[in-house]
Amino acid sequence: MTDSTNSDSRPGRHLDFGKVAKDLIVTALIATAIFGSTIAFRTVSAAGGLRLEVRYDLAFYVIAVVVIGRLLLWLFIWSKPPGTSAVEMPVSIKSGLAKVTAKVGKGFGPTMLMFALVFPFLPFTDRYLLDLSILILTYVMLGWGLNIVVGLAGLLDLGYVAFYAIGAYSYALLAQYFGFSFWMCLPLAGILAAFWGIILGFPVLRLRGDYLAIVTLAFGEIIRIVLLNWYQFTGGPDGLSGIPRPSFFGLPFSRGEGGFSDFFGFDYSSMHRIIFMYFLILALALLTNFVTNRLRRLPIGRAWEALREDEIACRSLGLNTTSVKLTAFAIGGMFAGFAGSFFATRQGFISPESFTFIESALILAIVVLGGMGSQVGVVIASIAMIGGFEVFREAEQFRMLIFGLAMVVIMIWRPRGLISTRIPSIFLKEKKAVSADMVAQGEGH
Amino acid sequence: MTHVVDDPVLTVEHLNMRFGGLLAVDDLSFDVGRRDITALIGPNGAGKTTVFNCITGFYKPTEGRITARHEGGKTFLLERMDDFKIPKIAKVARTFQNIRLFGGMTVLENLMVGQHNTLMVASNYTFGGIFGLSGYKKAEKEAVELAKYWMDQAGLTQRADDAAGDLPYGEQRKLEIARAMCTKPKLLCLDEPAAGLNPRESEELNKLLLFIRKERDTGVLLIEHDMNVVMGISDHIIVLDYGKKIADGTPEEIRNDPSVIAAYLGVADEEVEEVEHEIEEGASS
């Protein structure tokens, strides 16, 4: 609103009444614009149709609260001299906080992993929580896969869900037409998705910035529309159902003779299959993380990051940027393919409905929110976003509003994502994190 | 007037570069000696950077031939190669006028990216590396050693684990040269390496360049405006003006060349007066 952040505007404790009055009027006008229409009027169903209910009094109270709140801010916080400003955190607390977060950060990964391993056996874990964590882990895996393309190589991909769809349909179709099992299809789905990553890679090699983003977006839509319209092959909008469930090394999760519970002498429980699914996606996600971390320390991973930093410098050092980009798309796509086949086997039914642009946007939001290139950041962001969606399920139509507000707040608070520092892939004496201001963001951001 | 070079690492013959109606480089021919420091100088807009971009493949020349020669007698026609193959196969490395470092990566990482092609082969194109085969670990150790060597030479060892973007300007310049040297080039092309350096830093740069020539058998071709650097370390100077070569010789020859003096300082006062006189006469008649 007004320049309340400008330190010149608040000299000493003396309030400039004209300025405050002006600010409060502006505040009142904005509050009226926002709440005047949304709170003052309400449609209620009545006999014979809708009736308009008018609540001027309520709107007035809300606006008054906003104005009084801002007045209190002026009186008690913004009136202080700039040096002792209470809005900003003191330096000592800030550096202390940084130390604490660094310590927490070190133990965070292993702690999370331990928790993830014992989670299905905790007393409070029920079917709902387990299903939710499978969903979160799927997004963690997708986030880690997209992190290769967006976070490391710096190529903005808005059509990542296409690879997820290719993985899911690969498994479903191979199982339907050839009767392949899940374990056979998993690598095949990954290979097919990687292959399509290369196919996408070729046309976008020469593109930069916004143009790259648009073509990847179009690619995502093309895949979805082909799946939707190729009725004879993919079942179109009807989708594919009866996708076979995975077995535990040949033991199906079924009741009776020859099943998993029979073989190990357990009582049959439908939870066994869910717990198995949980560990399956956990293993797949950890594989993604392991491979990504490994690749970062190899020349290919450094080439990805160098590509994000400066493509021309890469070429001047003899890096074939074509193959660098193609490998990034292929490997990123491969992990989405794995995740897709897992999705198909978990759901047992897939249709193009599950692979809309909003999914791509959600995965990208997870990567951006977590901090591009940060593996732990993706985990936190997935939990926050997918878990947050569930927590606010009660809030119904306000869910998206809360979600959007949270995004805005986080982007103001941490514009480069929750974990924005970059950890070097190799060091001589001391591993120093590189601050986010130094790290380039690549194409299309 | 052409300076005779016995064993050229680079030969440029009849190079023409046309941008629409502008002939940026006009029938330029010169040689770069294998163990020489060759300077390409000229007033602003003379076409020096264009020549560089042609040599390093960033532009495809309109006409002409650019040949790189290795010690074994192997030759590479640079005008026909993809830009990334020129450092990779023909071993001609370059730096940029406006420094292009990987700012978010550390000094050591920058130097490791410089050795990408060697490491790629050593990691069996990633497949060996991902399974942790010993061949890659050894190659990586050697790469770190080479990086250390160049950090020592460039005085960057203390900053090895700092982000390249955090370095002061002079050190960034040196890092860019060190990174180019990590590709083990036969010819190093430097685009204004001393621009923006203070006298002490440019003295260090001179030392580094002389070291490169002496110890590493690498030819150096540089564009430079700083005459202290040019006259102090060059063996051979080529002067361009409006895309044409106007002089070619040793620093001593160049210093006394009337056409160079005219290009840099303009023509002598008497000549200007003569021209003015003619114009006045033309106007009055």
TrEMBL record, chain A:
It is found in: Cell membrane. It is a multi-pass membrane protein. The chain crosses the membrane at residues 24-44, 56-77, 107-124, 136-166, 178-199, 211-231, 274-292, 326-349, 361-386, 398-415. The keyword Cytoplasm does not apply. Its main location: membrane. Keywords: Cell membrane, Membrane, Transmembrane, Transmembrane helix. This is High-affinity branched-chain amino acid ABC transporter permease LivM. It comes from Sneathiella sedimenti.
From TrEMBL, chain B:
CDD domains: ABC_Mj1267_LivG_branched (cd03219). The keyword Thylakoid does not apply. Signal peptide: none annotated. It comes from the Bacteria. Residues 10-267 form the ABC transporter domain. Keywords: Amino-acid transport, ATP-binding, Nucleotide-binding, Transport. One of its GO terms (molecular function) is ATP binding. InterPro entries: AAA+_ATPase (IPR003593), ABC_AA/LPS_Transport (IPR051120), ABC_transporter-like_ATP-bd (IPR003439), BCA_ABC_TP_C (IPR032823), P-loop_NTPase (IPR027417). Pfam families: ABC_tran, BCA_ABC_TP_C. Belongs to the ABC transporter superfamily. This is ABC transporter ATP-binding protein. It comes from Sneathiella sedimenti.
